[in-house]
């Protein structure tokens, strides 16, 4: 593999340093080169290229906000036995020391697009150079949350865009499990999704899209986030998974809300957004996540 990387990246020295986590679906390796260390995320999935292309697009979009740091992507490289995404290697540690910084920077990332509103009149659909205001919900290319593609076709209405995301997850569940209860609960809840946004103005924000605690860390220069599943959506969406699976410290949320205060019915919308992630985990890891998915839909229907 070293020779393949040397040829593709036009390097004279590539030496294996060790393995590292590449997330739940990829293998990760670290190499030392004359230009510094690199991180290589390896996939044997034939559909890896669009997944990696979506990841690069998300990293570049976040970088262009000049708010929270992300690793710099370098290149997608064809291997004899798969495909890999090469990016800057960053020495990462527990987020603990940088939690406050990340909360502040994430809120500023969410505000970045609206700060451009006075400078740009309309959406620029084909590129994402971080300069023009985006006035719709979606992204200029598909991105992936885990192995599952996200349809990021632009929509003017956030409630419709989000409902489509849930629809996509439920279609996969229907195909694999034919779960009648899940289908019936969503049929009822989907009609009420607009009610969650009656008193809230939703302005498109660039989102990480999968910001659980395993996708954030502390680097020598401060907070860093990675493995994005980006699109433009409601800023609160990023906080939903941040509260799941152990979540982030209270210091993170306090710092975030010092910049972007909570709006009415915040908790209900967080629960709605968490539904997507439980369904996504159900599709990835099986019926262990069914109970949480069903419970959330019942709760939302009862308490709306």
From TrEMBL:
Keywords: ATP-binding, Kinase, Nucleotide-binding, Transferase. SUPFAM superfamilies: Protein kinase-like (PK-like). GO terms for cellular component: cytosol. GO terms for molecular function: ATP binding; kinase activity; protein-ribulosamine 3-kinase activity. It catalyses: N(6)-D-ribulosyl-L-lysyl-[protein] + ATP = N(6)-(3-O-phospho-D-ribulosyl)-L-lysyl-[protein] + ADP + H(+); N(6)-(D-psicosyl)-L-lysyl-[protein] + ATP = N(6)-(3-O-phospho-D-psicosyl)-L-lysyl-[protein] + ADP + H(+). It comes from the Eukaryota. Its EC number is 2.7.1.172. It is an enzyme of class 2 (transferase). PANTHER family: FRUCTOSAMINE 3 KINASE-RELATED PROTEIN, PROTEIN-RIBULOSAMINE 3-KINASE. Belongs to the fructosamine kinase family. This is protein-ribulosamine 3-kinase. It comes from Parasteatoda tepidariorum.
């Amino acid at each position: 593999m070293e020779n393949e990387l040397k040829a593709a990246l036009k390097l004279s020295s590539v030496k294996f340093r060790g393995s590292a986590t590449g997330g739940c679906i990829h293998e990760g390796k670290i190499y030392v080169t004359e230009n510094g260390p690199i991180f290589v995320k390896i996939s044997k999935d034939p559909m890896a290229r669009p997944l990696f292309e979506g990841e690069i697009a998300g990293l570049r979009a976040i970088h262009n906000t000049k708010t929270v740091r992300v690793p710099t992507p370098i290149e997608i490289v064809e291997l004899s036995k798969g495909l890999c995404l090469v990016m800057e290697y960053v020495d990462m540690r527990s987020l603990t020391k940088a939690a406050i910084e990340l909360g502040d920077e994430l809120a500023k990332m969410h505000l970045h697009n609206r700060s451009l509103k006075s400078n740009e009149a309309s959406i620029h659909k084909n590129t994402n150079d971080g300069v023009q205001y985006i006035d719709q919900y979606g992204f200029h290319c598909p991105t992936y949350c885990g192995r599952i593609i996200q349809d990021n076709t632009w929509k003017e209405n956030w409630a419709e865009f989000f409902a489509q995301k849930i629809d996509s997850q439920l279609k996969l569940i229907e195909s694999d499990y034919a779960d009648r209860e899940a289908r019936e609960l969503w049929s009822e809840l989907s009609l009420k999704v607009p009610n969650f946004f009656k008193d809230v103005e939703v302005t498109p924000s660039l989102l990480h899209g999968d910001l659980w605690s395993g996708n954030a860390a502390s680097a020598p220069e401060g907070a860093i986030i990675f493995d994005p599943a980006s699109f433009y959506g409601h800023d609160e969406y990023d906080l939903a998974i941040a509260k799941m699976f152990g979540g982030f410290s209270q210091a993170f949320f306090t710092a975030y809300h010092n910049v972007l205060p909570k709006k009415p019915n915040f908790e209900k919308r967080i629960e709605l957004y968490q539904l997507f992630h439980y369904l996504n985990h159900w599709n990835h890891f099986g019926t262990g996540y069914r109970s949480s998915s069903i419970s959330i839909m019942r709760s939302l229907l009862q308490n709306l």
